[in-house]
Amino acid sequence: MESEKVEPTFVGENDGLVFVVPKELFTMKLSPEQKLDRETAKEYSKYLTGTFKGFQKANKTKYQNGDNNKTETTPEFWSEFESLAKEKGIALIGYTPVLKNYIFKNLPIVGKNAIIIGMEMDWEKIKTAPNVQVSIEAFRVYYELGEKTIELTRFLQGKGYRTEAHHPFGGKLLFTAHAVAAGLGIKGRNGLIISPEFGLRQRWSAITTDANIPETKKVDFSDMEDFCENCGVCIENCLGGAIYEEPIEKVNGSGIFTHIDRSKCMESLLNNNYCSNCLKVCPQGHK
After folding, report:
1. Architecture in CATH of 46-51+60-285
2. Least CB-packed of 59, 114, 123, 246 within 10 Å?
3. Cα(5)–Cα(220) distance, integer angstroms
4. Looking at residues 231-257, what average pLDDT do you find?
């Protein structure tokens, strides 16, 4: 049963981090040479519709905690959780306390800790970029990862923990900063996370919870960081010319940096079938 009011754990206060709904994506059209057969079009529609519905479902999970107030956990509990997640196709799992400075301005968060989860985007599809198959793959992962995030949230709620799902298509906290804090990868020069497993080829979501989480794993990413810093292939091959040579701090002292010109990136997404050329060219994401 849903309660009408939920006391948040945190509310975003960083003026440099404001959530913007990417309305332009709702107007994206295929180029004439990218016509889809009926079955593929039906599949694509399922992913698009499921993504938007999933986003709405995730936003309601904060109301579905009832009287949950447990916090204590065991290593065995997290082994069970991770096994369940991997059965559902989750490839990457990490843990970090919620980073208060990386919650979107004025948005309320339920839960003191964050579970960051990632799902791989298929290389065979990504390497066709820019192509409609990339767009289909992107929304397949948005949809499936969103559904699995909600299922895992309900698992935690069923165990008595106050928990909220944050959909990959638009969570209340900045996934990239939390993925780095959770030891899952580094931030690339285009602002996306590079993981050792898949390079740029994953989508992220988060679950915030009052459950006590495992200790964050310490990982040495110095080789990956050096490689990325000296590479620049994503900048050179950005179809929209959207990636800055040097990131720009959005608000002085906020700790929030922007790595791309959003309007140029969005224009390339709209004109190049969801583009994603940077995912294709990153040498750290090839199989």
Report:
1. 3-Layer(aba) Sandwich (3.40)
2. 246
3. 42
4. 91
